[in-house]
Specification:
This protein is globular. The protein has helices at residues 3-6, 19-29, 49-56, 59-63, 73-76, 88-91, 108-118, 141-151, and strands spanning 12-14, 33-37, 43-48, 101-102, 122-129, 132-140. Strands 1-2-3 form a three-stranded mixed beta sheet. It has eight helices and six strands; from the N terminus they run αβαββααααβαββα. The longest helix has 11 residues, at 19-29. Helices cover 37% and strands 21% of the residues. The two termini are 28 Å apart. The protein has 158 residues and is of the alpha/beta class. β2 and β3 (43-48) form a beta hairpin.
């Protein structure tokens, strides 16, 4: 099976999208992350759900997790206010790498190796030419795992 066969339509956001809307999109669709597109509509980064959560948690709690136990529910309910007025680009890690991009002709194993190498919950499938990068779809880790397990005829031990 080739990457083009595994790629599916997937929710994307732009670097200028509203961060709260992006968080709701992740939550509503139970997405492991979002593909972030640049101003030209080309894949720019992956915003993992864990990074979005990190944006919500105050830095002092990340530095000293014991402080999380003393934050009352009233204040915990306000965590999402940290996203108010912010863009998706503000939530990206300063060390965010470009997203992994598979060629449409890559095999499922090539996609799996790419995903494993960069530890990404998703891989963009795109063609590249002089005009730029053209997104065909996305392969998520769970979808790829499902396909690999189905293709290999693996069954559960019980």
């Amino acid at each position: 099976m080739r990457a083009r066969d595994l790629a599916v339509d997937y929710e994307t956001v732009s670097v200028d999208s509203d961060a709260m809307d992006a968080a709701r999109l992740m939550a509503d669709h139970k997405l492991p992350g979002l593909l972030v597109l640049d101003e030209r509509g080309e894949p720019m980064a992956i915003l993992p759900a864990s990074q979005m959560i990190k944006t919500l948690v105050p830095a002092y709690v990340i530095e000293d997790p014991t402080l999380a136990a003393v934050v009352d529910e009233k204040h915990a309910d306000r965590l999402c206010q940290a996203l108010a007025g912010r863009r998706v680009g503000d939530c990206l890690s300063s060390k965010a790498d470009p997203p992994p991009i598979a060629d449409p002709d890559d095999t499922a194993l090539e996609v799996a190796a790419l995903m494993a190498r960069v530890r990404s919950p998703l891989v963009a499938v795109a063609t590249k030419d002089k005009a730029g990068t053209h997104l065909l779809g996305v392969i998520t880790a769970s979808h790829l795992l499902h396909e690999l397990l189905g293709a290999g005829g693996m069954s559960s031990p019980m």
